[in-house]
Amino acid sequence: MRGVLLTALLAVVSLPRVRAVWLGRLDPKQLLGSWYVLAVASGEKGFASEKATKNIEGVVVTLTPENNLKVRSSRHRLETCDLSVMELLRQNSGWVFENPSLGVLEYRVLGSNFRDYAIVFTQLELEDEAFSTVELYSRAEWASPAGLSHFTKWSQSLGFLSQQQARLQTDSTCARKAFQVSCI
Question: How far apart are the C-alpha atoms of 158 and 162, rounded to whole Å?
Answer without folding.
Answer: 12
